[in-house]
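Handout, page 2. Input:
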Amino acid sequence: MTFFNFLSDDQQAWRENCFRFMEREITRDYIRECDMAREYYFDGYDKIVKEGWHSLLMPEELGGSAAGPMEYAVMCEAGARYGYDFVAAVVGTPSFTAQNLIKFGNPDQIDRFIKPFVAGELRFSIGISEPEAGSDAASTQTRAVRDGDEYVITGAKQWISGSGLPNAHILMLVRTDPDAPKHQGLSTIVVPNNLEGMTLNKLKTLARRGMGTYQVFLDEVRVPVANRIGEEGQGWEIIGSNLELERIACASGYTGCAQQAVDDALLYATQREQFGQPIYEFQVLKHMLADMQTQVDAARMLTYRAAAKVAAGEPALREVSMAKLFASETLLKTGEQGVRIMGGHGMLPEADMERYFREGMQSTIGGGTSQIQRSIIAKTMRETVRS
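Output:
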């Protein structure tokens, strides 16, 4: 295992442990089988819960490990080794959603939602996107109207990953004040996925096959006011409060999957023979592999730089956006080049490379598109220019 000099000895040992766990306990075959069958990683999730990865960031008094962003990034990189969808399903989306509840929830909500989550009995999903509100998430139209001690929710959500799993609870962004400016009239409510009036439709997407992503329709769904997180009108603040952690999880996961794509392509190139020699000996393939590894190393450095800034308590909006942007496009590029190196074999599910390529396509869209990341980076650049 290569030593990374930006990690402490403890973090390097943690990294080696995480990669060893994925190789021995989760396995490449298991990830492939779940992806091909479009089935959730139930056994894998149970193992992750036993290891405490899903609660890594949580305070020790809540059953977590009180780890920092660097340790989180290390774990996400390892967890995505055989496919980003796995780490997103069992750690990424659930853990940063839980962090929102820990930060803004009250003691009753901690007891009802966080403790069962730590025990592996409850899953979290996050419901932001809608058919007409994707990158412009503040244009949410799903309405929550208060009726005594309940909210009555009507509307539709789209691309809500993991929302159809058993005992999934969706942290849903809803509009509680239609007359307020769009960023100020939003609230967040925990919505169990089994309430009367809810309909969930699993979508057959290119990626996200194991986790599953859903349309969620709500027809006068009644949810207790006690499930609202924070105050009315605080929804935009809550949803964005762990944005840096989300993008660190994304970038580190993309990097881990991209590294596996490079490793698989390199191994194939050294073993596959054409014209009397391994195809690796052709200069064009050497250069392709050299570019792929260079891109992955750069993605990793950008990711850990961002994680280190967050760990130090420094503003890191530009850094996390750069890491998310570059790592996602690196995964897409290495997956594509890996398929080219492996030829027809790379298009077979059994070869895994086509899965890395599909997940690369998704990675440039989910968690904030590449275009949005570029806009954020450009905005932070403009702010440094003195008028």
